[in-house]
Write a structure and sequence with these properties.
The complex is a heterodimer of chains A (595) and B (596). Chain A is α+β, with helices and mostly antiparallel strands and 595 residues long. Among the domains of chain A are: 144 residues, Acyl-CoA dehydrogenase/oxidase, N-terminal domain (Butyryl-Coa Dehydrogenase, subunit A, domain 1, Orthogonal Bundle); 122 residues, Butyryl-CoA Dehydrogenase, subunit A, domain 2 (Beta Barrel); 129 residues. Helices cover 57% and strands 10% of the residues of chain A. Chain A is built from 18 helices and nine strands. In chain A, the strands form two sheets. In chain A, strands 3, 4, 5, 6, 7, 8 and 9 form a seven-stranded mixed β-sheet that branches. Chain A has a two-stranded antiparallel sheet with strand order 1-2. Chain B is of the alpha+beta class and 596 residues long. Chain B has a domain of 147 residues. In chain B, 56% of the residues lie in helices and 11% in strands. In chain B, strands 3, 4, 5, 6, 7, 10 and 11 form a seven-stranded mixed β-sheet that branches. Chain B has a two-stranded antiparallel ribbon with strand order 1-2. Chain B has a two-stranded antiparallel sheet with strand order 8-9. The chains are: A alpha+beta (595), B alpha+beta (596). Chains A and B meet through helix 9, helix 10, helix 11, helix 12 and helix 15 of A and helix 9, helix 10, helix 11, helix 12 and helix 13 of B.
């Protein structure tokens, strides 16, 4: 099992050197608390917790899984104790509002902690992670009384929360959901229905579980415009009475065995409306963007974790001799890291892990400003950028994270397939990230349909303008030409392709769906190229100015070169495919898919 | 999981219409008296029945239960034993076996279809049978007449199973380092001592005996891969009358806990002075293994796309059944609360991708099998030589490209199911887990790509490549004026040109850079595979356009449309691959080992 080491130097590089976090935190009122010393201390402590407490539980969680007995869910050995420690350390309160007992630190710090937790033990991290949705819902839309009742304990971690959306017959299409909410005389509602795929729907870690449930009021309009949000506690806060919320069964899954994925039955459970009637989906979307950075981190973690495991193995495992001459004459063979193809896999993992981290942290800063910036204009700008980035982060990063995890297995050869080594677990665990919180296909439709075409390309332009400015600024820099030139070309092509698809979509509405996933992947590669170019620039500057970390910065430039030369050409295929048209996708008769 | 339906219509299309197997079989000395179209059809029908009704229902539970181990041996999941008994009674293990030893002597083109059905129904079950067939190939090619007579009939009948014992804890890819020892006993037999790992079917409760083919070193053998010999080591000794006796000091120390193929026992095998017999020449063990390697590697490739075919069938079923959202172009079934997800372009894109790869793989594996058949059954020396060269060239592609695309397809098949794809009951995630091993064993796909790029392309300066390029060029030339094939021939020609250019580029680069082969290899194999599939799709399109008129079944029209999808949506990746390869090895090797 790979032992997790928090990549602190990498985290520091992205936060401080790439994204100038010191200045960022000074730039808005809510950031003032995040002094550089404070940030370092928190991340250092978080790293320790992840390495020492969570990482060792990762394999245990996979092997034991959760069990349901007599209506109660038991989590794997050690999970509960780790959670207690986590709550005692005040970790759930990091970026919560001080009014509710939070520490009021910017969201972007939480993202760093979440990355480390998720890499060390994703299944465990989902228990506190899922509470964010409930906290966000209550704090944005709850009445004062609801805030009073629920927020402090949710924030402290004494209670956890869930989001109950999916039903057996509806996942992507929430408009057809059936759970019902009947009004009671006392202003509360009686909630009845079955929800599936509820992560952390039941467990033994916290005293109470607060469910945010999507349901329909009587006479609600059909479709997505007839959905309301309800807050439904497992135990009623005042009396601690059982509220007829039960876990009907646990799913048997490919991975994330340590997390309980529950079928939740609400059998006339008492609930309270939160937010306006029939506007439940709108309410949810207000914080979806931030939540999806959280899911994207699963891709970062998969790339980082599998890279760490594969790297250690590749330096240790001996097989064959290097083609350019023996490298380990004292041993019976050379370590496999000498072989170009093994390096190709390692570098791909590395480039994805570091590139993805930069993309997530960049977006996390936008999330800080979305809540904390002083002017409406600055908040809007952050919101637009975050809205544009979100589907790319969620889908592209989890896709490449999954690829990286598979490389990790491959570097191990046959041992990669064996459970003891832990590499196949990373593949199984991370596979879910391409499915939940909106599949890759759904994210791609969101990007191309809603974010790009519906804004007439405005959201895209905001990003490409930033890229353009960067390219112009560095146009004369000889060392940067290898990055700036291809980036500039792609940046322009991105707009051209968008235009082309937009035009054909006016004639045929299926064009969007036919192009969307290729468009998203293309966008992901170009976005990541921009961040690699920026990282390369910083590294080159440090090398030019004389640094004591020559190895570190040289590796950055070399990884950027690898990314540009070996991975970025993938844009070519995606570009051709996205404009190939809907005809070949839609032509076949449904009945002819099989004979 | 949807019930498995063997794609017989498509198999007939590939066998009879695209590759005209009947003509080939009639022309080959070794097959003309053995097989005719009626026999082939009967075998296909029977294989379809037994795989879909007997084996396919075992796969889901087999995964849940897995194999279990104790000191007495390995227990396979419920139902496997009974199914195995019924299965071997059909004579399937010896389908392609040597007829002189009670095999059926059937050609590989047919065997490939049978294997696909077997693996689609359950890879884990299929492995028990296929490892036996593989061991038989090596015995048939290299063992003494005495050993052949003693072992082959019992193995073809499935009463005794086979296992291949190569890997050791410290050596997998690099077999030159193995440590298992063989010492002469003085009676013509050898005493074998050592530990082998990852031995598929090394121990099980299905067959009366298990015949291990073990790689070991003789005393004083040269170091490295030139000092390895092959031995036949039965788990239980067999007396002169073929009566199975005591354990031959061959024991299973444990079984592995794996990502997938859980119903297949992956064993640690201990040989503790076990009695064995030399197969082939001393120190030529690896060479002996290589004779069967081409068959095995094609078989692993088939495993991959067979699973992808199962995944595709499930996904199509689900996509027609699951209703979610409305079609972008207007409600497709207004009376229901939503449309089936097959109306959504992205869902169709995934299904079409799976379909195009699977059918491309079926054609490609049959194409490779046709060369294996010619190499084995022809009595014309030139023809044989050409076929052997094509087998050598195409085998690494068959193994690696088919399994790589198979994993992609299984992942897509899981994606079509949304969250349900992650849930074990549906079976889609199992197919991903089961298929993942096919990219690893029998030489990882990285090793296959080195074999292709280094041994098959660079070391002969592209001579083998030219054989393939000439064949495709001839096809292009023949069909250049076929108006119905316009959207097929020109992208094929462009892809072929790209592949030829890249081939030349890499061959040149190797003159100055020892790392050039390894730096290009994986992407080169993919580029070659994709281009070869373009050739397959062009061949299929040619047959389809000739038959589309008047066809009311829709079969040929569907072929044409799938070909169009392949050329417009999948083939463009060749552009990216070619550019990646041309970036060379500098960036790949630049990073200091400690700077990772």
């Amino acid at each position: 099992m790979p032992e997790y080491k928090a990549p602190l130097r990498e985290i520091d590089f992205v936060m401080k050197e790439l994204l100038d976090s010191d200045k960022h935190y000074e730039s808005f009122p809510g950031g003032a608390e995040a002094s550089p010393e404070m940030v370092d201390a928190i991340i250092g402590e978080g790293a320790k917790f992840c390495e020492e407490v969570l990482s060792p539980l990762n394999k245990v969680g996979d092997e034991e899984g959760c069990t349901l007995k007599d209506g109660k869910v038991t989590t794997p050995t050690g999970f509960k104790e780790a959670y207690t420690q986590f709550v005692e350390g005040g970790w759930p309160t990091l970026s919560a509002d001080p009014a509710q007992g939070g520490q009021g630190l910017p969201e972007s710090i939480n993202i760093v902690i979440s990355e480390m937790i998720g890499t060390a033990n994703w299944s465990w991290g989902m228990y506190p992670g899922l509470s964010h949705g409930a906290v966000n819902t209550v704090s944005e839309f709850g009445t004062d009384e609801q805030k009073e009742t629920y927020l402090n304990k949710l924030v402290s971690g004494e209670w956890t929360g869930t989001m109950c959306l999916t039903e057996p017959h509806c996942g992507s299409d929430l408009g057809i959901l059936r759970s019902k909410a009947e009004p009671n005389a006392d202003g509360s509602y009686s909630i009845t229905g079955t929800k599936i795929f509820i992560s952390a729907g039941d467990h033994d870690m916290a005293d109470n579980i607060i469910h945010i449930v999507l349901a329909r009021l009587p006479d609600a309009p059909k479709g997505t415009k007839g959905i309301s949000l309800f807050i439904v506690p497992k135990f009623l806060p005042e009396t601690a009475a059982d509220n007829a919320v039960t876990c009907g069964s646990l799913e048997h899954k490919m991975g994330i065995h340590g997390n309980s994925t529950c079928v939740m039955n609400f059998d006339g459970s008492k609930g309270w409306l939160i937010g306006p009637e029939n506007k439940g989906l709108n309410c949810m979307f207000t914080f979806m963007n931030t939540a999806r950075i959280g899911t994207a981190l699963q891709g970062v973690g998969a790339a980082e974790g599998s890279f760490q495991g594969a790297l250690a193995y590749a330096k240790d495992r001996l097989a064959m001799r290097s083609l350019t001459g023996v490298k380990n004459p004292d041993g019976p063979a050379d370590p496999i890291i000498v072989h170009p193809d093994v390096r190709r896999m390692l570098l791909t993992q590395k480039a994805f892990a570091e590139g993805s981290r930069a993309m997530c942290y960049f977006s996390a800063q936008k999330a800080d400003l979305l809540h904390g910036a002083e002017t409406e204009e600055a908040r809007k700008e952050a919101d637009d950028m975050l809205g544009f980035m979100t589907p790319i982060l969620k889908a592209f990063i989890t896709e490449v994270g999954y690829e990286a995890a598979n490389h990790g297995v491959q570097v191990f050869g046959g041992h990669g397939f064996i459970s003891e080594w832990g590499m196949e677990q990373i593949v199984r665990d991370t596979r879910i990230s391409l499915l939940y919180e909106g599949t890759t296909g759904i994210q791609a439709l969101d990007l191309l349909g809603r974010k790009v075409l519906m804004t007439q390309g405005a959201a895209l332009k905001q990003f490409t303008k930033m890229v353009h400015v960067f390219c112009k600024e560095n146009a004369e820099n000889e060392e940067m030409k290898q990055f700036v030139e291809p980036l500039l070309t792609l940046n322009k092509e991105w707009g051209d392709l968008t235009m082309k698809i937009g035009m054909s979509a006016m004639k045929n509405r299926d064009e969007v769906g036919s192009a969307s996933v290729d468009y998203l992947m293309y966008s992901g590669y170009v976005t990541m190229a921009y961040f690699w170019a920026r990282m390369a620039l910083i590294a080159q500057q440090n090398l030019a100015n004389g640094t004591t970390e020559e190895g570190f910065y040289t590796a950055k430039v070399q990884t950027a070169q690898f990314y540009f030369q070996r991975l970025l050409p993938r844009t070519k295929g995606h570009a051709a495919m996205m404009v190939a048209g809907a005809d070949s996708v839609m032509a076949m008769d449904e009945e002819n898919f099989s004979f | 999981m949807a019930e498995y339906q063997a794609p017989l219509r498509d198999m007939r299309f590939v066998l009879n219409e695209v590759f005209e197997a009947d003509k080939l079989w009639a022309s080959l000395a070794g097959t003309r008296d053995i097989i005719d179209p009626e026999t082939a059809e009967a075998i296909l029908e029977e294989a379809s029945k037994i795989t879909s009704s007997l084996i396919a229902p075992l796969s889901r539970e087999g995964d849940e239960e897995g194999c279990s181990w104790n000191e007495a041996g390995v227990t396979t999941p419920k139902g496997y034993k009974e199914a195995y008994k019924t299965f071997i009674e059909g004579g399937w293990v010896g389908l392609s076996g040597n007829a002189n030893y009670d095999g059926m002597g059937m050609p590989k083109m047919l065997g490939a279809q049978y294997e696909e059905m077997l693996y689609s129904s359950d890879i884990a079950f299929g492995l028990y049978a296929c490892l036996t067939s593989g061991a038989c190939l090596a015995i048939d090619a290299h063992a003494t007449e005495e050993l052949k007579q003693k072992y082959l009939p019992k193995m073809y009948s499935g009463e005794w199973a086979g296992a291949m014992d190569l890997t050791e804890p410290h050596s997998g890819t690099d077999l030159g380092m193995i440590r298992t020892k063989a010492v002469e006993n003085g009676d013509g037999s050898y005493s074998i001592t050592g530990t082998k790992i990852f031995i598929t079917g090394g121990e099980q409760d299905l067959s009366e005996n298990i015949i291990h083919l073990v790689l070991a070193k003789l005393p004083g053998a040269p170091a490295g891969s030139r000092g390895i010999s092959l031995f036949l080591v039965p788990r239980n000794s067999v007396d002169a009358n073929n009566v199975v006796g005591e354990n031959n000091k061959v024991t299973c120390g444990s079984i592995e806990h794996k990502m997938g193929i859980k119903a297949s026992a992956t064993c640690v095998m201990n040989f503790d002075g076990a009695q064995g017999w030399l197969v082939g020449e001393p120190n030529k063990g690896l060479m002996a293994m290589f004779t069967m390697m081409n068959y095995e590697r094609l078989s692993v490739g088939i495993q991959g796309f067979a699973a992808a075919e199962r995944s595709y069938q499930n996904a199509v079923d689900y996509a027609k059944d699951r209703i979610q959202g409305r079609a972008a172009t207007g409600a497709a079934q207004a009376d229901k609360e939503a449309d089936p997800i097959i109306v959504h372009p992205d869902v169709r894109r995934m299904l079409m991708t799976m379909k195009a790869y699977n059918e491309g793989s079926r054609a490609f594996s049959t194409y490779v099998a046709s060369f294996l058949d010619t190499a084995k059954f022809s009595d014309n020396a030139d023809e044989k030589k050409h076929a052997e060269a094509m087998v050598a060239l195409l085998t690494p592609i068959a193994k690696a490209y088919m399994t790589d695309r198979a994993l992609d397809s299984c992942v897509a098949g899981q994606q079509v199911f949304g969250g349900h794809g992650y849930i074990r009951e549906w079976g889609q995630e199992q197919l991903v887990r089961d298929t993942r091993i096919t990219q690893i064993y029998e030489g990882t796909n990285g090793i296959q790509s080195l074999d292709l790029m280094g041994r098959k392309i660079v070391s002969n300066s592209g001579k083998l490549y030219e054989l393939f390029a000439n064949e495709v060029a001839e096809f292009i030339e023949e069909n250049r004026d076929n108006a119905a094939l316009q959207s097929t021939i020109s992208p094929l020609a462009a892809a072929m040109e790209r592949l030829s250019d890249v081939t030349e580029y890499v061959i040149k680069a190797t003159a100055e850079d020892a790392n050039a082969v390894g730096a290009a290899s994986v992407e080169y194999l993919e580029l070659f595979g994709l281009t070869a599939y373009a050739y397959m799709w062009a061949k299929m399109a040619k047959v389809a356009v000739a038959n589309v008129e008047g066809d009311t079944s829709g079969f040929y029209d569907t072929k044409v449309k799938t070909a169009n999808f392949f050329f417009s949506r999948l083939l463009p990746k060749t552009v990216s691959l070619s550019e990646s390869i041309r970036s060379g090895s500098v960036d790949m090797m630049a990073l200091d080992q400690d700077a990772f």
